[in-house]
């Protein structure tokens, strides 16, 4: 094998490139210098290719077993503290619980505001 | 959800050859953890985090593959800048089979596999309703790459339920609530078989809890971001997070503050070394230092004095020489003057005289006497400028020239005089103002300070506003981060914008109709506006700025707590820590109170992280609603045996909370019993291992021929029967 530090070899950190029990080795299957990882369909694409619409709707599949939205009205919580939040700051759109939090919130730089919003998927996404 | 950082790297097994080819290998392929072992054994042989990283080995430059967690101490030999942890999973579905292959390579290698193939049947777990693409890719990989004789797929939650059913923890009819790494499932069971028609999945799991905690803490403590690694936050979650029985009342406890909230607040002390305390220097020390300083000062003073005396004596000898020369010159005959002068190096008598004047002046200056020259000139204006008052026609051409020179000299010296006078008056004025200020201050210090502060604020606002107007014609609010949102159109200041407008209109107006430009006088003003010179010409702000500087400095003198407002673009931390305070132990503490139950709360309220799906408790109700068989009290029996499992079910309080929550969504007085799995993390593998060890297992596997002959549709409908 390659020249490695003794402790690295001893710890067996690195996966050996050649394994006897494999019919096709990694380096044969994915030769060096080839674009990797591109050709793997993401879940969204996989699900599209599954063509679930062609099967009876009562047959369970990955998409239709998803839970529906909650029946309870969504409670609003303070983005900073997690307290119940009766107010929304019209400028930053952050929810807040009281005047103290508001003061804190107004001192936040814009990227922090966006990160807080992103936590509940409410950030403005620029494309 | 185990604490990965503590697990040692698994040893390669040595007894692989002792297992007959008929003995199945059992794999629990979880989104977070991979477990592999032999059928019939109580525990998996190898367990590791289901990730791969491919860093570059620094010494050889070779890209290597590492599976699972590594000893951080050994990672120094590798360059990980371009590779991070990669998982074969998208949500809970395997999609990246290159990474999956590395993981399987490692798993079989650690199991001790040798020979030309992995000659054992494989039972591997998958998610509920796994897309057929993922399932067939996995089967293909096992057949084609490892030469596995046959495979079987099963759902982890089902194996777990069966295992606990065998232990008597749950009944043959029941519900598995499995909260894993990336998803949570509710799967009902009838007669010990899962009913996938009635199951449901919410895309929230332990990953989201950890991520939420990590984000919240790093937003709260931006300075400690490097300390908040994924592994560390995971550890914090495991150790401190719990499920509140009622989120709102729990959070109110913290909002009110008080003893109980304090007790529930956890604090993590980051490594912190107190800075070396500066000892107050003793009186002796101070005296010694002062003495040294004084000594150095004296030396400098002495040197300066010596230099001064040297210079004075030098000048004096020069003056003496010159005076002697002058005297000599008087004695020299008219005809020999030229010769005499050429010997001395001077051209004329006047030159010697002027040299004398010059030397006397510098002598006087170096002696520290006030220069009396100007006063002298004042007193002797008529003597010095004798030609000024004589009319031109009475003078010779040379004298006329001389008169003009004298006139010029006179006006400049007078101008200087005037400027000096003005400075003097201003000084007096300022002094007076300061005195008045001081009187006012002494009269009522508090009021004065308040007024001063108000004035400072007002002035700084004024100056700021003007600055803003100058840089940008139309900004609405002052407290926005200036640097962050200067867009393309906003780079020019107001004056520059106006200039651009004029230029463009001028350019576009050309050739439109009759050109009458220049007929009126005002037209030419346009060029003045266009020219670049008038960008910075207003006087107003300078006065204000000067006043602001004065007031600010005065405030700084009087008020120790006063901190001048910093520039707009500067970063403000969340907490109002004054900048100058030295850092203490408390600054290196990460405290979390509400976060302890706020983060796992997303399992029950996915809305908190923007996932619009039902939470764990509601999922049980939804599953019951989707249940196809009604009557015969089957629903009662199911809700009477709810098994909670999966890594995220280990939060304290989850069973009680679930029971209360499910009671809300089920009919009044339903029987509801919620139990925790014997081992929420390992039971799935154990159930699968027990399943694979039964004699009936082989009926449910399929081999390579089956796979290719029966086609995709068959693979899609393939479903394990869990009761053997």
TrEMBL record, chain A:
Domain Vps72/YL1 C-terminal, first and last residues per copy: 76-105
Cell compartment(s), UniProt: Nucleus
GO biological process, any: chromatin remodeling
Keywords: Nucleus, Transcription, Transcription regulation
Tagged with keyword Ion transport: no
Classification via InterPro entries: INO80C/Ies6 (IPR029525), Vps72/YL1_C (IPR013272)
Primary localization: nucleus
GO CC aspect terms: Ino80 complex
Pfam families listed in its UniProt record: YL1_C
Protein name (record): Vps72/YL1 C-terminal domain-containing protein
Species of origin: Coptis chinensis
TrEMBL record, chain B:
Chief place where the protein resides: cytoplasm
Domain of life: Eukaryota
CDD domains registered for this protein in UniProt: ASKHA_NBD_Arp5
Residue ranges of the region described as Disordered: 1-21, 409-444
Family matches, as Gene3D superfamilies: 3.30.420.40, Actin, Chain A, domain 4
Keywords assigned by UniProt, alphabetized: Cytoplasm, Cytoskeleton, Nucleus
Keyword Endoplasmic reticulum among record annotations: no
Keyword Cytoplasm annotated: yes
Subcellular location: Cytoplasm, Cytoskeleton; Nucleus
Composition-biased stretches (Basic and acidic residues): 413-443
Cellular-component GO terms for this entry: cytoskeleton; nucleus
Biased composition (Basic residues): 1-11
UniProt-listed InterPro entries: Actin (IPR004000), ATPase_NBD (IPR043129)
Family affiliation: Belongs to the actin family. ARP1 subfamily.
UniProt name for this protein: Actin-related protein 5
Organism of origin: Coptis chinensis
């Amino acid at each position: 094998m390659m020249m490695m530090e003794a402790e690295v070899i001893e710890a067996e950190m690195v996966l050996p490139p050649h394994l006897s029990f494999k019919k096709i080795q990694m380096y044969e299957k994915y030769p060096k210098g080839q674009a990797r990882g591109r050709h793997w369909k993401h879940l969204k694409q996989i699900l599209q290719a599954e063509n679930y619409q062609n099967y009876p709707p009562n047959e369970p599949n990955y998409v239709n077993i998803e839970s529906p939205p909650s029946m309870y009205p969504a409670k609003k919580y303070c983005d900073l503290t997690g307290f119940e939040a009766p107010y929304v700051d019209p400028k930053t759109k952050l929810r807040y619980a009281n005047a103290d939090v508001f003061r804190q919130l107004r001192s936040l730089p814009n990227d922090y505001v966006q990160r807080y919003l992103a936590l509940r998927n409410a950030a403005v996404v620029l494309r | 959800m185990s604490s990965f950082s503590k697990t040692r790297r698994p040893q390669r097994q040595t007894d692989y050859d002792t297992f007959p080819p008929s003995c199945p290998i059992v794999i629990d392929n979880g989104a977070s953890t991979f477990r592999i072992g032999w059928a019939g054994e109580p525990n998996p042989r190898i367990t590791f985090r289901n990730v791969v990283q491919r860093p570059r080995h620094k010494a050889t430059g070779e890209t290597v593959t590492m599976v699972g967690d590594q000893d951080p101490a050994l990672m120094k030999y590798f360059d990980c800048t371009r590779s991070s942890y990669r998982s074969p999973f998208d949500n809970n579905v395997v999609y990246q089979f290159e990474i999956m292959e590395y993981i399987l390579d490692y798993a079989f290698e650690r199991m001790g596999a040798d020979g030309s193939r992995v000659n054992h049947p494989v039972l591997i777990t998958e998610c509920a309703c796994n897309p057929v693409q993922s399932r067939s890719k996995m089967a293909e990989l096992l057949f084609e790459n490892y030469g596995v004789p046959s495979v079987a797929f099963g759902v982890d939650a089902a194996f777990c339920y069966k295992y606990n059913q065998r232990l008597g923890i749950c009944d043959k009819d029941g519900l598995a609530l499995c909260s894993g790494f990336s998803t949570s499932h509710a799967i009902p069971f009838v007669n010990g078989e899962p009913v996938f028609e009635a199951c449901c999945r919410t895309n929230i799991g332990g990953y989201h809890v950890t991520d939420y905690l990590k984000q919240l803490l790093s937003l709260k403590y931006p300075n400690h971001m490097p300390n908040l690694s994924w592994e560390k936050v995971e550890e914090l979650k495991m150790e401190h997070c719990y499920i509140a029985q009622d989120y709102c009342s729990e959070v109110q406890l913290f909002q009110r503050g008080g003893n109980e909230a304090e007790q529930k607040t956890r604090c993590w002390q980051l490594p912190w070394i107190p800075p070396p305390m500066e000892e107050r220097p003793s009186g002796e020390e101070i005296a010694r230092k002062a003495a040294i300083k004084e000594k150095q000062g004296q030396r400098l003073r002495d040197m300066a004095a010596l230099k001064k005396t040297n210079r004075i004596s030098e000048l004096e000898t020069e003056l003496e020489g010159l005076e002697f020369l002058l005297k000599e010159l008087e004695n020299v005959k008219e005809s020999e003057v030229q010769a005499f002068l050429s010997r001395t190096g001077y051209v004329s008598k006047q030159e010697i005289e002027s040299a004398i004047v010059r030397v006397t002046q510098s002598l006087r200056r170096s002696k520290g006497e006030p220069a009396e020259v100007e006063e002298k000139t004042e007193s002797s204006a008529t003597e010095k400028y004798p030609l000024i008052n004589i009319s031109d026609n009475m003078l010779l051409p040379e004298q006329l020239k001389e008169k003009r020179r004298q006139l010029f000299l006179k006006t400049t010296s007078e101008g200087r005089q005037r400027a000096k006078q003005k400075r003097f008056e201003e000084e007096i004025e300022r002094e007076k103002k300061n005195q008045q200020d001081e009187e006012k201050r002494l009269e009522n210090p508090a009021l004065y300070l308040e007024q001063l502060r108000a004035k400072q604020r007002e002035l700084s606002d004024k100056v700021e506003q003007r600055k803003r107007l100058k840089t940008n014609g139309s900004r609405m609010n002052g407290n926005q981060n200036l640097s962050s949102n200067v867009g393309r159109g906003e780079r020019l200041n107001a004056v520059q914008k106006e200039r651009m407008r004029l230029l463009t209109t001028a350019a576009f107006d050309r050739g439109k109709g009759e050109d009458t430009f220049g007929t009126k006088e005002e037209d030419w003003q346009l060029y003045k506006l266009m020219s670049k010179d008038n960008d910075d010409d207003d006087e107003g702000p300078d006065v204000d700025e000067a006043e602001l500087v004065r007031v600010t400095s005065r405030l700084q003198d009087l008020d120790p707590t006063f901190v001048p407002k910093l520039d707009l673009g500067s970063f403000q931390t969340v907490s109002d820590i004054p900048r100058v305070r030295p850092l203490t132990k408390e600054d290196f503490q990460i405290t979390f109170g509400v976060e302890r139950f706020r983060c796992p709360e997303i399992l029950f309220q996915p809305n908190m992280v923007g996932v619009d799906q039902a939470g764990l408790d509601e999922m049980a109700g939804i599953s019951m609603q989707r249940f196809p068989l009604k009557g015969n009290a089957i629903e009662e029996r199911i809700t009477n045996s709810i098994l909670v499992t999966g890594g995220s079910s280990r939060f304290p309080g989850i069973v009680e909370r679930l029971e209360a929550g499910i009671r809300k969504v089920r009919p009044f007085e339903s029987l509801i019993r919620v139990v925790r799995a014997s081992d929420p993390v390992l039971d799935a593998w154990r159930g699968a291992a027990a399943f694979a060890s039964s004699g009936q297992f082989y009926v449910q596997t399929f081999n390579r021929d089956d796979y290719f002959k029966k086609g995709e549709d068959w693979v899609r409908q393939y479903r394990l029967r869990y009761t053997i």
